[in-house]
User: What shape does this take?
Amino acid sequence: MKRSVCAAIVASIVSMASASPCLSHGTVGDYTFIEPLVAEDANPKNEFKMLRPGWVRGAEGREFGLGFSLEKTIVPAPDWMSDGVPTGGGIVSVELAGSWNYSSPSEGPPASGFGALEIMPKWAFLTLPEREMRLSVALEMDIPVGNAAVEEQHHTQMGPVFLWAKGFGRDFPETGLLKYLRPLAIQGDFGFVPALGGATWHEMFADNVIEYSLPYLSNNVKDIGLPWPIRNMYPFVEFNYNQLTRGPSGETFPMINITPGVAFMNYYLEIAVGTQLALNQATVPNNHASVLGLVDLFIDDIIPATSWTPFD
Assistant: This one.
């Protein structure tokens, strides 16, 4: 009996891992976008980012974090947005996010605890499935409810975020060598999130992701016989900018990183891993080495009842 149960569990895991690439989560037209490691996704959807591990070693010590978040669609996408493909997502969602952090400074005792609570309502105000493009706006609210020893900011922050996602499958020709550029896509964000009180802390950030969809290559360009799991993968590179325009010590130098990585995505989940490299001298002291990861579950395919929305 125990062997039968174990065999069933193993078979279920293998089935989930080898399933066809998802065509409903973060899909605009024919292109399905990944959930980036750093940048915010422009696509409202139902997902549980179960694990977002991150480890960074800098001049002042080491930091480790385990992030997690739940995003729920509250207004579904209308049928016309699908362009013939079921969207499975929405046009309005709300995300709740948090993290558990451990800091081991070069001087002083280590500290650990939960960080700030992030609340982010998101609205996809423009979707052009024929151009594989989506534009969204969001409101980021960071509420310091965790351990002050591991939180960067001890006052509530709130500000707007602009997000975009654009696939190029319909911008390049379907013949010749240029057709192999059709699986390319970009997505990213730009935000300004100031503190609402206390010490001045005005944070500005921008991220852009360049990704290449091997599922799109196999399904929409040419099947070159890629085996599983390679045919479900997305190599990508992120460019990440962060800066305090005003802070306790005034304006800081911009922090600029490049984040190369690879993501695996099927119908039920996404797994991604990458590393961050400093691109300017001001970033080097804070990033000698780093590793980032993501395990993202598409909950409305795992538990179909979660696809319910209050504003159908």
